[in-house]
């Protein structure tokens, strides 16, 4: 199945006495198998744009289409369903639930989607965690893991419902260079081996330089949108 996310003149203004424009007139298309880094100075609207693309926020004006469907016509419930089925999220701070084992944390999005039996959810969560090198840790709680391990759990959780797109906000922002490299390679593998699309907001220039496409934002606007000449396999 092919899909596309199309942003057409997206603008997001925060209403206030002096309104703040977070995202200004952004038009772009995100397609299959893309590895995109969103860069830009602090406060340039990177996270705000990611939240719009991830259906976590709604634009003030402009349209966001997914598979040709205008998302402004969807109510919150339909948006939540689309998000659950199509998108996975990884944040700088993992937001794992501290009281649950990592296995349970990865099962949670599957429970929400309500498609699989308990046994199938367990097996899928275990398989994802094993693929990410966490086989021996399934019954541990997040605070028993290192920062790099926790971020890999967050990636496993993002993949739980087999999304088309993984949206990541500073996925390596709280990691040392070794763990950053590992998370980068995992995200790149999701695209080049797994056929997914990854859109990552990053301040990490080494990360951005090795993405296949770079969107550079300034003051909420896309200043440049460049693609690498050839994507390494
Ligand atoms: N809830 C809010 N209230 C007021 N201002 C906000 C709010 N959320 C974001 N902003 C402002 O909107 C602008 C864009 O924020 P955003 O977080 O999208 O930028 P960013 O490029 O991701 O920044 P950073 O790299 O520092 O994370 C910033 O100037 C920020 O201060």
UniProtKB/TrEMBL annotation:
Gene Ontology MF: a single term: ATP binding
Domain ABC transporter: 5-233
Nucleotide-binding is among the record's keywords: yes
Any Pfam family the entry gives: ABC_tran
Domain of life: Bacteria
Alphabetically ordered keywords of this record: ATP-binding, Nucleotide-binding, Transport
Similarity annotation: Belongs to the ABC transporter superfamily.
Protein name: ABC transporter ATP-binding protein
Biological source species: Microvirga terrae
